[in-house]
From TrEMBL:
Family to which this protein belongs: Belongs to the SNF7 family.
Protein name (record): Vacuolar-sorting protein SNF7
Disordered: region residues: 167-190
PANTHER family: CHARGED MULTIVESICULAR BODY PROTEIN, GH13992P
Pfam families tied to this protein: Snf7
GO biological process: late endosome to vacuole transport via multivesicular body sorting pathway; vesicle budding from membrane
Chief place where the protein resides: other
Amino acid composition bias (Polar residues), ranges on this chain: 167-183
Compartments where located: Endosome
Lineage: Eukaryota, Fungi, Dikarya, Ascomycota, Pezizomycotina
Length: 208
């Protein structure tokens, strides 16, 4: 994979690693030199102190050597500081590079995730979720209501209504009963028939 700054990521990583390894080797050598010079300085200081009364020339020679070692030590310490700063800079730059590479990878992953998404799809999905939640709530309420005890008075009213419907049905489906003449009506009909017969008899006699 090619980086944003040119060259491959693997080469950049190896280059930084090699540079740090070489700097560490040089740092170890300078640190050894530093300890050696510190020992030489301490030794020449001890000689000068020992000879300060007995042999002035020897004491002066020891001080000159001490001064030379101190100059070399100062130079060595400066080199150590420079190398440590370089190592820190390379490590920081490499860390920044690796961090940026990870962030770029995360950004690419987010782009792939969001590739099939937009605000309209999100709104539509959220609306569907709300609808399904409402349906689930209604179903839950219905299930709860199914378990609630029924009002007895409501059952009695429904029972009365059913009885009335059955009575109405029976009355509508029953055949009509024949109309029976009352005794008074039958008597009136007989008198009328007798009168008709009497009238016919009278007409026959007159014709003779």
């Amino acid at each position: 994979m090619w980086s944003w700054f040119g060259g491959s990521a693997a080469k950049k990583k190896d280059s930084a690693k090699d540079a740090i390894l070489k700097l560490r080797e040089q740092l170890e050598m300078l640190q050894k030199k530093e300890k050696h010079l510190e020992g030489e300085i301490a030794e020449q200081d001890a000689v000068a102190r020992k000879m300060v009364q007995a042999n002035k020339n020897a004491a002066m020679t020891a001080l000159r050597r001490k001064k030379t070692h101190e100059t070399h030590l100062a130079s060595t310490v400066a080199q150590i500081n420079t190398i440590e700063q370089q190592m820190h800079s390379i490590e920081t730059a490499n860390l920044n590079y690796e961090t940026l590479k990870v962030m770029q990878s995360a950004s690419d992953a987010m782009k792939k995730i969001h590739n099939g998404m937009n605000l309209d799809k999100v709104d539509m999905t959220m609306e569907e979720i709300r609808e399904q939640q409402q349906i689930a709530e209604e179903i839950g309420n219905a299930i709860v209501q199914m378990g609630e005890p029924t009002d007895e008075s409501e059952l009695l009213r429904e029972l009365d209504s059913m009885k009335q419907e059955q009575l109405d049905t029976q009355m509508l489906s029953a055949p009509s009963a024949p109309v029976t003449a009352t005794p008074q009506a039958a008597k009136g009909k007989t008198i009328e028939e007798d009168e008709d017969a009497e009238l016919m008899k009278l007409r026959a006699e007159m014709a003779m």
